[in-house]
Structure to design on (169 residues):
């Protein structure tokens, strides 16, 4: 007898949820329709920038919007484009490495972000010493983990010894 009551109640709730979803979609559509004229107003404002900084910003924005539209979606074409960019970077890097010794003086005068490509990464040669656990030096640290069972046992033993000493007094 309870089940039909609950199922009827849940059916009512589902119908109410569907109705609310439809109402929300209708409200969203109204907002989208009302925002379209606002977008046109923004375009009119774009045509008449108030100062140079705003004009420069809008030009840069248009430039990147065009680049974003040109960018391919996921798929094999996008993978080919990425590999082409990688190959172009590799060739640019290899040419910068071969041209680096000649252009050292010119790199200081120009700021074209290509100077880092000509540098070769070098590491200081450090001899690898084998650490002996029995030898103490400045690089050796004592590791003490209170969760370790061995350390727990040691603590318990030391507590017993301390209790015995106190009992003897």
């Amino acid at each position: 007898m309870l089940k039909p009551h609950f199922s009827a109640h849940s059916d009512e709730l589902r119908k109410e949820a569907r109705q609310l979803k439809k109402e929300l979609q209708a409200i969203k559509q109204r907002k989208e329709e009302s925002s379209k004229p606002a977008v046109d107003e923004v375009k009119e404002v774009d045509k008449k920038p108030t100062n140079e900084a705003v004009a420069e910003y809008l030009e840069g924005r248009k430039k990147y919007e065009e680049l974003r539209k040109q960018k391919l979606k996921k798929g094999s074409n996008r993978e080919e484009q990425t590999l082409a960019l990688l190959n172009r970077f590799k060739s640019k890097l290899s040419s910068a490495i071969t041209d680096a010794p000649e252009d050292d003086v010119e790199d200081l005068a120009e700021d074209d972000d290509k100077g880092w490509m000509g540098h070769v990464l070098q590491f200081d040669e450090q001899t690898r010493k084998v650490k002996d656990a029995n030898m103490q030096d400045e690089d050796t640290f004592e590791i003490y983990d209170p969760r370790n069972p061995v350390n727990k046992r040691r603590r318990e033993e030391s507590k017993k010894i301390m209790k015995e000493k106190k009992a003897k007094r």
